[in-house]
């Protein structure tokens, strides 16, 4: 595993008519994920995307490739929170492995039990909830998750880096009830779905601009002071998704999209 990427297996495209980035490519848009549309529109497009997959033969559809599973509370996993550690960089496999080791040693030295949590993986990000009360401990929007690493010494442990250059980065170490690769793959699938929806947002915005340009050319609108580039910028702004650290507080979104490199599933399975 490289020191800068987390890799998981390549899955089938959810929409065969759209071009899906091949494996070993970084999911990145040049304009930044915070300029590609509103969350409400993404959810509407998610339903459309799900409808396309439902038209395929039943044998070709797998639950893990169904985009609608990320609606609402999304996909849930039982786990324990190992700990949280400040890190210096937004990505790095060796750094994550060391952070996991440090967190494990710290909790053993303290003689404390790991907090039981439920991981909700949904279209608006990850939520870590207290398993007993159901209270949201942390809410992490997708665009601020920059790296995911599976523990090389424990098939049931993984962690991810969350943050931004302005607020700093923190590593969240998690111990899963089942294989950690299941959670990692679900997170990767979520990133892929969000990528497809945002790409659809760009296409819709371009169509909207073209329609307005046609109307301007026909003289329907008298005010042509705004340039096409101004219209693109105005129509492609994304309302920041709220970040929660115990409460659902709104924070300023980062312009850096999450980077995920696809890898064969065999590299995620325990040795």
Automatic annotation (TrEMBL):
State the Gene Ontology BP annotations: cell differentiation
Residue ranges of every copy of the PID domain listed in the record: 71-205
Name any GO cellular component annotation: cytoplasm
Region described as Disordered: spans on this chain: 226-271
Compositionally biased intervals (Basic and acidic residues)? 240-250
Its domain of life? Eukaryota
Q: Where are the transmembrane segments?
A: none
The cross-references to PROSITE patterns, in alphabetical order and at most eight, read: PID
Instruction: Name where it mostly resides.
Output: cytoplasm
Q: Where in the cell is it found?
A: Cytoplasm
Q: Which UniProt keywords apply?
A: Cytoplasm, Developmental protein, Differentiation, Phosphoprotein
Q: Which InterPro entries match?
A: Dab_PTB (IPR048561), PH-like_dom_sf (IPR011993), PTB/PI_dom (IPR006020)
* Protein name per Swiss-Prot or TrEMBL: PID domain-containing protein
Question: Species name for this entry?
Answer: Cuerna arida
């Amino acid at each position: 595993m490289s020191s800068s990427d987390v890799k998981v297996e390549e899955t089938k495209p959810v929409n065969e008519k759209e071009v899906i980035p091949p494996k070993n490519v970084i999911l990145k848009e040049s304009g930044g994920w915070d300029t590609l549309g509103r969350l409400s529109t993404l959810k509407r497009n998610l339903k459309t995307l799900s409808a396309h997959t439902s038209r395929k033969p039943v044998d070709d559809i797998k639950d893990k490739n169904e985009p609608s599973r990320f609606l609402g509370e999304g996909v849930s996993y039982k786990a324990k929170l190992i700990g949280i550690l400040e890190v210096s960089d937004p990505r790095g496999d060796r750094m994550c492995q060391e952070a996991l080791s440090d967190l494990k040693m710290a909790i053993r030295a303290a003689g404390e039990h790991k907090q039981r949590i439920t991981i909700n993986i949904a279209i608006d990000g990850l939520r870590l909830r207290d398993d007993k009360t159901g209270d949201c401990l942390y809410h992490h929007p997708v665009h601020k998750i920059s790296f995911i690493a599976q523990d090389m010494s424990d098939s049931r442990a993984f962690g991810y880096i969350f943050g931004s250059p302005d607020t700093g980065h923190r590593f969240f170490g998690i111990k899963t009830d089942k294989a950690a690769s299941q959670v990692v793959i679900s997170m990767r699938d979520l990133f892929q779905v969000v990528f497809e929806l945002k790409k659809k947002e760009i296409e819709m915005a371009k169509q909207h601009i073209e329609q307005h340009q046609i109307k301007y050319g026909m003289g329907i609108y008298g005010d042509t002071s705004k340039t096409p580039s101004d219209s693109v910028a105005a129509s492609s702004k994304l309302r920041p998704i709220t970040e929660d650290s115990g409460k659902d507080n709104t924070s300023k979104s980062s312009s850096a999209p999450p980077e995920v490199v696809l890898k064969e599933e065999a590299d995620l399975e325990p040795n």
